[in-house]
Design brief:
Elements (H helix, E strand, L loop, with lengths): L9 E3 L2 E5 L5 H10 L1 H4 L17 H13 L4 E7 L13 E11 L5 E8 L8 H15 L5 E6 L4 H10 L2 E12 L2 E11 L7 H5 L1
């Protein structure tokens, strides 16, 4: 059985990851509302006939943290200390979200990684740093072997993230995920633990 490390906080420079909390609802909702048009083309949606039931943000956060304690996922928010007046890390604003999902142990030892960032903070190197922090934690602390990222071919910003970090392109999966109201093709990128040397944070440096 895997040793569970949750909750956990990670930081490199002015970028930090911390657990999504039930009390983040107002700040999270405000960020999502500001970025409706920016995020809609990449947002996961429910296919016709799916019924997961409506949940409050608080219920979602509690459920995700419960799953994290069982080692099934890592629901992080991205915070940033480079914002004006950010002050101590506890007051850094929420600027995005990063989720490690589908964590599998046994003979597979792999997981998926997905993320979004507030448009006003895009282009500052925040997402590559957040991805590097989470991936290194998965490899070196959780003992996972493979991290996979699925990206729509049209999402040029996300494609730049995996290119910067050296993720290997493995091919296209047709109609792979339900995004923005339909099944969408995705490109798959991955790295195995033996390919990353001292880690992705080191690559950024």
């Amino acid at each position: 059985m895997a040793i569970v490390h949750w909750p956990v906080e990670l930081q490199h420079g002015q970028v930090a990851l911390r657990p999504l909390r039930a009390g983040d609802g107002a700040e999270w909702a405000a960020a999502r509302q500001r970025n409706v048009s920016w995020l809609r083309p990449w947002d996961a949606t429910q296919p016709p006939g799916a019924d997961d039931g409506a949940r409050t943000f608080r219920a979602m956060a509690r459920d995700w943290n419960r799953q994290a304690r069982y080692g099934r996922m890592l629901p992080f928010v991205i915070t940033y200390g480079g914002a004006a007046g950010a002050g101590a890390r506890a007051k850094w604003p929420l600027v995005g979200q990063l989720t490690v999902s589908g964590i599998t142990y046994g003979s597979a030892r792999w997981a998926n990684l997905g993320y979004w960032v507030d448009e006003q903070y895009a282009g500052r190197g925040i997402v590559p740093t957040a991805v590097a922090l989470a991936a290194d934690h998965c490899w070196f602390t959780l003992g996972l072997h493979r991290i996979e990222v699925a990206i729509r071919p049209e999402n040029k910003a996300s494609l730049r993230v995996v290119d910067k970090l050296g993720f290997r392109y493995e091919g296209e999966r047709p109609r792979f995920l339900h995004i923005d109201g339909d099944w969408r093709d995705h490109r798959i990128f991955a790295l195995n633990s033996e390919e990353v040397g001292p880690g992705l944070v080191s690559r950024l440096e």
